[in-house]
Write a structure and sequence with these properties.
Helix content: over 70%
Order of helices and strands: HHHHH
Number of helices: 5
Oligomer: single chain
Length: 89
């Protein structure tokens, strides 16, 4: 069923699910201004999950080494994968 949804519909559904506990309100959260960071974070996580090495994910994304390192640090990608690996064990 999820495969039949467009990326836009998946994002909208996730936003809807995220706002339900808050009574469908996210006042004060500047989502519009955060969209590029949200998309970059998600794309970086996908690239690392879909490739075997960091070098391969860097090439997949078309980033220079310096840009790649900057984004890994900015989005705390190593911490994310380390935290998720610990919870799966």
């Amino acid at each position: 069923m999820l495969n039949n949804l467009s990326l836009e519909e998946v994002v909208a559904l996730k936003l809807e699910l995220a706002t339900k506990p808050a009574g469908s309100k996210l006042y004060g959260f500047k989502i519009w201004n955060s969209l590029s960071d949200i998309i970059r974070d998600a794309t970086l996580k996908y690239a690392l999950s879909a490739t075997k090495t960091k070098a391969e994910s860097m090439r997949f994304l078309g980033l220079s080494l310096s840009s790649y390192k900057k984004f890994l640090k900015k989005y705390q990608i190593d911490d994310y994968f380390e935290d998720n690996r610990l919870t799966e064990e």
